[in-house]
Amino acid sequence: MLYHIGDRVYCRINSDSSVIFDYDFYDSRYLQFKIRTFEVIGIHDIFYVILCWPGVDDAVLLNKDRIDKWNINPKHLGRYGIFVREFSIGGRETIDYYKNALACKVCKEYYPYAEPNQPDGSLVCWVCRTTRIIY
Fold first, then answer.
1. pTM of whole model > 0.70?
2. How far is C-alpha 129 from the geometric centre of its chain's CA atoms?
3. Which residue from 9, 81, 71 is spatially nearest to 45, judged by alpha carbons?
């Protein structure tokens, strides 16, 4: 398998918050969809289990049975995951990506070359600032 547990990978997300499956990541028909990063937390047969948020289509709650069955670290109990195949992943983020990036303290998305915009020195991205009532 190309990716390993702990890798941060990126996938394209369409407008209704579902991961786009079975496509060429660089196909021009899909370039309008945004790219989001995810953490690989498990490998099951030919699928990767990646962490996601509850609004993603096909997201499943990681309960004890699923964690045991899919050999996922118990620290992810109560979080959400989704199965994706290798060709739904655009690639792996490298450590260099994080050197000059800040993560949004709400959605945890990384933004290269971002600067803090909160009094505590953290970053809240534009999407979270404009769509979330409390952050």
1. no
2. 19
3. 71
